[in-house]
Amino acid sequence: MNEAGPRSFRVDLRQSTHKWDWKTKYMRALWEFCLKPFYNILPFKRNRLRAPLLRMMGATIGEGVYLQQRIDILCPWELEIGDFVAIAHDVTILNFDKVHIGSMTVISQYAYLCTGTHDYSHPHFPLTFKPISIGSESWIASAAFIGPGVTVGHGCVIGAYSVVIKDTPRWKVCAGNPCTVIKTRTIADI
Fold first, then answer.
1. pTM value?
2. What is the pLDDT confidence band of residue 135, given thresholds at 50, 70 and 90?
3. How far is it, in rounded angstroms, from Cα 175 to Cα 187?
4. In this model, does residue 140 exceed pLDDT 70?
5. 3-state DSSP percent of the chain in helix, strand and coil, to 5
6. Which of 10-19, 51-60, 138-147 has the highest mean pLDDT?
């Protein structure tokens, strides 16, 4: 409790609102209350109904996409997935804005992709959104956080539990909090 009283606050969350257009409200309600509960209970790790349900809600999904159980997607219509992408269980995609995942990419369990943040310098603390792009042939390892406006470079590996708040270069292995380049990624000849 603030003994000085509410008038001494410099941030006023009572004014913090975000105006969603009617179409977005309708789509979110349809997804959250009608289709997402069904999507979440689909059995088996590889279920052929997950991708069509997401496409029904406006997602762009390539061929051969592997979607495990319990992938939490906020707005399917803001999701673009290339060909032969694998997304593991318990991944969260908080996509108020576009999330693009390039082909031949793996998103491991408990990874968190978030396109939203708040303008902490504004007294009303408004929501702001910036898209995320993950390049083809990349790997986002377990429990990594990818923040708003980030581009993960083509072929980049993001280490487990990393916090990515800036763009990462192509064909690098990056890790840490904050995420930094560790070394160049090379692919063995077989």
1. 0.91
2. very high
3. 18
4. yes
5. 20, 25, 55
6. 138-147
Q: Tokens 């380049």 appear where?
A: 181
Note whether 109 and 62 are within 8 A (CB): no
Q: What CATH homologous superfamily does 21-184 map to?
A: Hexapeptide repeat proteins (2.160.10.10)
- Tokens standing for 47? 């279920």
Quick one: average pLDDT of 62-86?
A: 95
Q: Which amino acid is at 31?
A: W
Four-residue CA torsion sign, 152, 156, 157, 162: negative
The residues that are catalytic are 118
Round to whole Å and give the CA distance between 107 and 64.
15
Q: Is 36 within 8 Å of 57 (Cβ atoms)?
A: no
Task: Evaluate if residue 75 carries a pLDDT over 60.
Answer: yes
**What gap in Å lies between CA 65 and CA 136, rounded to an integer?**
13
Residues forming beta bridges with residue 106, ordered by sequence position: 86, 139
**Cβ–Cβ contacts within 10 Å for residue 24, how many?**
14
Distances (CA, A) of 166 to 24, 153, 160: 28, 11, 16
* CA dihedral (112, 116, 119, 120) positive or negative: negative
